[in-house]
Amino acid sequence: MFTPQGPTFRELAVQALSSVEHGYDLLAPKFDHTPFRTPDSFLRSVARALTDLGPFGSGLDLCCGTGAGMDVLRAVCRERVTGVDISTGMLDVARRQQGPDGPPASWVRGDARALPFGPAFDLVVSFGAFGHFLPRELPGLFAQVHSVLRPGGRFAFPVVAPARPGSRGHLAMLGFDAVMKVRNAVWRPPFVMYYREFRLGEVRRELARAGFTVELYALPEFGRRDDGSPRCRMVVATRPAGSGPAV
């Protein structure tokens, strides 16, 4: 499916009927041949935007998958970079294909909701992972990110503007979320992936509640919508210097 090197429909069906962790373990060898991998255009755009805010010392790719976002960290971090993911299979692929350039890299299996680090990072990035967290999990997730950043550290990720209501893209996302909700109502274990649940307004509120100051940066490569707003933004949440742990 997608390309000759990508997963078949049957393989995707097996993944969809698994847990998130096991599903990605199964998909890992073919993940980079699917549209689920973050496009290089997004990675390059975020790297350019972060270059103006850096350089940074150490960086963490949250829910790193097969490591595509680690190239962003290598471009803007000087000391070391770390990828964390719940899927052993995805981490195995990431280790095998990491490039030789940039600071030393390490790979850690861990749950983003219970990160196995202290305040060791100057930058945390994440790409395409937030649909795997329910809205009620965002406060805990953002508190975890806050706890692993040094004072003054930043949490950055791109957010695409929602599709226009009634458009083909909007209807497709409504249909996808409906299918996932039915699947999770009748089948266990659940596979959490609801991308319409990650709304910028709510995200900004929860980041502020977690103790971050929040700024938005337009990613100009993706243009603007008819109303003049950016099609894609980078959210940059900063842990203020001298701040304590998030409550």
Could you explain how this protein is built, in words?
This protein is of the alpha/beta class and 247 residues long. The protein is built from eight helices and seven strands. Helix 1 packs antiparallel against helix 2, helix 3 (40-51) runs parallel beside helix 4 (70-76) and helix 6 packs across helix 8. The model has no long low-confidence stretch (mean pLDDT 86).
Question: What does the secondary structure layout of this molecule look like, with pairings?
Answer:
Elements lengths: L8 H8 L3 H8 L12 H12 L4 E7 L7 H7 E9 L2 H10 L7 E5 L11 E5 L12 H11 E12 L7 H19 L13 H10 L3 E6 L13 E7 L9
Parallel strand pairs: 1-2, 1-4, 2-3, 4-5
Antiparallel strand pairs: 5-7, 6-7
Question: Quick summary of this structure?
Answer:
This protein has helices spanning 9-16, 20-27, 40-51, 70-76, 88-97, 138-148, 168-186, 200-209; strands spanning 56-62, 77-85, 105-109, 121-125, 149-160, 213-218, 232-238. The chain has 247 residues and is an alpha/beta fold.
Low-pLDDT residue spans: none
The count of DSSP E runs of length 2 or more, i.e. the number of strands, is 7
CA gyration radius, whole angstroms: 18 Å
N-to-C SSE string, H for helix and E for strand: HHHEHEHEEHEHHEE
User: Beta fraction of the residues?
Assistant: 15-25%
Name the helicity range: 25-40%
Head-to-tail CA distance between termini: 45 Å
**Helical stretch count?**
8
The coarse silhouette is globular
Average pLDDT over all residues: 86
Backbone structural class: alpha/beta
If strands are numbered along the chain, what order do they take across the biggest sheet? 3-2-1-4-5-7-6
Biggest pleated-sheet summary: 7 strands, mixed
